[in-house]
Amino acid sequence: MLTIQRTMKILDNVSDLPTLPTVYTKVSKLVENPNSTVAQVAKVIEADQAITAKVLRLVNSSFFGFSRKISTVNQAIILLGFNTIRNTVLSVSMFNSFRLNKNGMLNLSEFWRHSIGCGLISGLLEVRLNADLREEAFAAGILHDIGKLVLDRYFPNEFIAALKHAQTEQCQLREAEKVVIGVSHDEVGEYLAERWRLPHKLVEAIALHHLPSNFRSSPKLVSIVHIANIFVQEMQIGQSGDCKVPEIDPFALEELGVDEDTINGWYVQIQEEIKENQDLFEIIS
Ligand SMILES: [Fe+2]
Ligand SMILES: [Fe+2]
Question: Which of 92, 126, 155 is the last residue in one of the domains?
């Protein structure tokens, strides 16, 4: 049985742990420096053609809702701001980092659909809540389950056993991971997010999307991703190994100031909006 300490020790010594592309690291550094200019950030992004193309397609998707076409990275940065651009680069580059999970048991295309769906729903919930988390909601949803990819790749036998346990017991994968492996994907995800030096709010959303009431400093973002992760499963968009849809933690609703009727109404609306945002699933994965 593993503990998180032991797992971290093992992963500390893994030399091929996925890294984020240098474009993200560079953008991130620039964004943190108050003297950086739009032109500098644009230049770094444009040096990577694949990322540039995806970022532009993403900001031109119906999800971002700009009425006119954004044709340059410069324009995108001016319209969206540094932090959103950084998180957008992160969202589109994440997928490459794990492209080679070849021995894994997770169906990657289903997993990405789950992740993108969760990102999309987090964003659509944020718009309704006006929670001042527009910069983070989408990326947090996309990244929330990255720990599963780490378990799948570096602890394949244990992870297979957890997936099977979730199936036979018809339980949530997190519970199965705890029983079978001893650590869960949210804990491992937090480790990777810290190692990648992701912004604190994103680390927190990855770490606590199943346990929103354990929040540290961003209860709203954690609650949004918690609900989005449940919605995406209810809507059966993609699959990420769970065999039981969890209940929404009442804490999350209370934190967001939303009652049951409202959230049920939003569910129906969002389910419709997802249909208008199908392009997003192709852009990113
Ligand atoms: Fe999860
Ligand atoms: Fe999930």
Answer: 92
Kindly give the distance from the C-alpha atom of residue 211 to the centroid of ligand 1, in angstroms, as a whole number. 10
CA of 148 to the centre of ligand 1 (A): 8
Q: Which residues 6+ apart lie within 8 Å of 91 measured at CB?
A: 58, 119, 138, 139, 142, 143, 284
pLDDT (tens digit per residue) in 236-277: 999 999 999 999 999 999 999 999 999 999 999 999 999 999
Domain count for the chain: 2
Q: 212: burial class by Cβ within 10 Å (0-12, 13-18, 19+)?
A: buried
DSSP designation for 213? G
Give me the percent of the chain exceeding a pLDDT of 90. 87
Could you tell me the distance, in angstroms and rounded to a whole number, from the CA of residue 235 to the centre of ligand 2? 13
How many Å lie between the centroid of ligand 2 and the Cα of residue 72?
Answer: 33
**Are residues 111 and 75 located together in one domain of the fold?**
no
Ligand nearest to the CA of 147: 1
CA angle (42 as vertex; 36, 48 as ends), nearest 5: 130
